[in-house]
Write a structure and sequence with these properties.
Length: 122
């Protein structure tokens, strides 16, 4: 079970975040609508965003993923006009599974660091 859940968590980053595959989001997530909207908006602002899974830890029905993301600011984000600047941030997501789907997830990521990189925060 843990190995299967880790594979699904990795697929979440590779398919949904890195490729923008919203069909995969529907397969992976029990409730995909909010995630699909957020990822689509984020990929509009950072169309080349790539998440690299650095580490996966699984226990029972949970998987913790530590990731690094890189991309380029090519669209408006959080009211910030396009800068063309490269960005990089890190984060951790805790996924909870039921069967072969993610039913809950919580991500902590360096959003302040991202805003510093694109300009509005000194």
């Amino acid at each position: 079970m843990s190995a299967d859940n880790k594979a699904i968590a990795r697929r979440f980053y590779e398919e949904v975040w890195n490729r923008g595959n919203m069909t995969a989001a529907d397969e992976i997530l029990a409730d995909a609508e909010g995630v699909k909207q957020y990822v689509a908006a984020f990929r509009t602002a950072f169309p080349d965003i790539q998440h690299k899974v650095e580490e996966l830890i699984a226990e029972r029905n949970r998987v913790v993923a530590r990731f690094t993301a890189r991309g380029t600011h090519r669209g408006k984000w959080q009211g910030v006009a396009v800068t063309g600047r490269p960005i990089s941030y890190t984060g951790i997501t805790i996924f909870q599974f039921s069967g072969s789907q993610i039913v809950k997830h919580h991500t902590e990521w360096d959003s302040l660091g991202l805003l510093k990189q694109i300009g509005p925060v000194p």
